[in-house]
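Standup notes
- HV: blocked on the assembly model, inputs below
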Amino acid sequence: MAEKSMSKSHFPWKHIFGYIMSIVLTAVALLIALYSNFAVRTIVILIFSLAFVQAALQLLMFMHMTESSNGKIQAGSMLFAAFIAIVVALGSYWVLEFGIHLNHHE
Amino acid sequence: MKFEPEEVKISENTPLEYQSQSGRFNILGFWIFLGAEVALFSTLFGTYFVLINRTASAVQPQELIDLGLVLMMTLVLLTCSFTCGLAVHEMRLNQKKRMIGWLAVTITLGAVFLGLEIYEFVHYVSEGATLSASAYWSSFFLLLGTHGLHVAIGIIWFIFIIIQVVMRDLNTISASKVFIGSLYWHFLDVVWIFIFTGVYLLRLVI
């Protein structure tokens, strides 16, 4: 992998692609949040999916996550970190919000 | 995985930062550190999402958030992540001066971002949204403040790296330091993507 990354091309196509895609994904997420008529839950799922795609682009296009002889360990470590992050953030929200409205119906 | 150094093929095309074993291991170690950083930020995000409606009688976030300012901060941070990537690209072409140039652009844009964030915070505090105004604002400032602190550390870190490259030239040691610094900088952008989505865009929706 390390050999391949040092390609003969001197023009940073990979970075420019990553940069343009970042801006496009940000703009699409913004447009969905501002102007779309989907249900709130659908919009939340959509904009967070776009955020994960954009994060993956950063990791692959700018941070060269999969290159070097340790590429697989690096990618595995970040996938595990993403799993922990989703469990902690979404799990906390779910545990503490679940049934929170029930008390108000008395 | 095989860790014996002789198993790794080193050619002239191998980027400088991967040529020494300590360089490779430092980079791997930094990736594992970034995993811990993800865990840190996920706890702050978890806190923020739990407290998202606990605004008490303090000023509401919808009344304060200035979308134009947020978009400007996002664009600045995306651009400096890009220029940081270009710096590593130039380093791999052995263009030391261009690399330092792009790093200087990166640091400048990072400072602009930090300035905008401080302006935003001062504006919020002047409107009554302080750290102790409500549980919501506490978690808001804690999450964004931790990110802002990371950006400040990144700026100082890059200044020292540039000084080292100027004094000792590009070699296997300084190249791996530049690369690790760039990983840290891109990671700050990854965190910002989720702050932009989870804090600012979510406010427009819910």
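- HV (later): unblocked. The domain at 17-205 of chain B is CATH 1.20.120.80 (Four Helix Bundle (Hemerythrin (Met), subunit A)). The mean pLDDT of chain B is 91.
- Next: hand off to the docking folks.
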